[in-house]
Design goal:
The structure is a single chain. By secondary structure, the chain is mainly α. It has a domain at 54-259. Helix content is 75%, strand content 1%. It has 15 helices and two strands. Strands 1-2 form a two-stranded antiparallel ribbon. It is globular, with a radius of gyration of 20 Å.
Length: 332
């Protein structure tokens, strides 16, 4: 019997056996979270605190990048220390195009997705030839290579970064923080829906099987590389899309977006929220940034407190913060 087919049948049986009420818990919580996020602009307007909209826009940018990383890390078992490279790449595509007078938003998006694909495919092919610590080191090394390339390009600001004087033009919506926030929210919601569809498909089943035991997947007659490469490229595209939004949010592109520390923060967000869960990256990004802001308000030594808190959550909560909110298992 084909192990993949057998696993599909077992998974279907588990879904049928699970009580309908428990299956609905994650869906209801997901809808509630997005409803609350939709109310943020209203709250910012009522309380006259535009900073609130900017703060949650930043949360959604990082949530989008974390969703991308979660596809590779949470479902594919690919521990990448280089995904911030794609966030920076997306931001620089917008900044460099604007630097030469090209401000069309559609052109910026096509440029971001095209350049990211051109970079992610060869990087993925190289990195996926290895496993474990070697994969981690290759992704880290290649990301640092792009980081130092950005630092060395003095005509584009070098280590000081490149200001964006012409944001991505989308007609009357250009420069509107509300339009940017709602676009971000729609992209995050769409990405969660896409992840749900992907994870529930044959592609998702094989990807999760690869994270457990690649040799058994090969023994079943399936070649893992195309599935892992597709997961890597898709995750890179979502991170680059986050970079596109980040550039338009800050009107700036910086080599710091590509630093290995930024990749480490994305990994923390995925683990904090719950790796291998649909809403974990969103909850993890929100928890990370809100915890950071809250601790900064109380002490200048906030890192001393934040570090142990994150470690304890990751160690003792198998599904992270999402596991607290939704103890019921997700129905993929």
């Amino acid at each position: 019997m084909n192990p993949v087919v057998s696993t599909e049948s077992s998974a279907a049986g588990l879904r049928l056996a699970r009580p309908a009420g428990r299956r609905r818990v994650p869906v209801v919580l997901t809808c509630l979270i997005f409803a609350l996020l939709l109310l943020v602009p209203v709250l910012a307007q009522v309380t006259d605190t535009p900073y609130l909209l900017l703060q949650f826009s930043r949360i959604l940018v990082l949530a989008l990048a974390a969703i991308g990383l979660n596809l590779a890390l949470g479902y594919g078992g690919l521990i990448s220390f280089g995904h911030a490279m794609y966030v920076g790449l997306g931001a620089y595509c917008v900044a460099v195009a604007s630097h030469y007078g090209a401000d069309s938003g559609v052109l910026h998006l096509l440029l971001v997705l095209g350049v990211t694909a051109v970079v992610a495919v060869p990087v993925g092919l190289i990195a996926l030839r290895t496993t474990g610590i070697a994969f981690i080191m290759i992704t880290l090394a290649l990301a640092q290579m792009f980081y130092f390339l950005a630092v060395g390009l003095k005509q584009y600001g070098g280590d000081e970064g490149l200001p964006i004087h012409q944001l991505s033009r989308f007609g009357s919506l250009t420069g509107s923080h509300l339009a940017l926030y709602l676009s971000l929210l729609a992209c995050v919601a769409g990405s969660v829906w896409l992840m749900r569809r992907l994870v529930a498909s044959r592609f998702g089943l094989i990807l999760r099987a690869c994270s457990l035991d690649v040799r058994r997947v090969r023994a079943s007659g399936t070649t893992p590389l195309p599935y892992l490469l597709l997961a890597y490229v898709l995750s890179a595209q979502l991170c680059a899309l986050a970079g596109f939004f980040l550039a338009n949010l800050t009107a700036f592109a910086s080599p710091a977006y590509m630093a290995w520390t930024a990749s480490g923060e994305l990994i923390i967000m995925v683990l904090l929220g719950g790796a291998g869960t649909l809403m974990g990256p969103v909850v993890g990004a929100a928890g990370f940034l809100l915890l950071e802001e809250g601790l900064k308000a109380f002490t200048d030594h906030w890192l001393i407190v934040m570090g142990p808190v994150i470690v304890l959550i990751v160690l003792f909560l198998r599904n992270g913060l999402w596991g607290i909110l939704s103890p019921a298992p997700e129905d993929h």
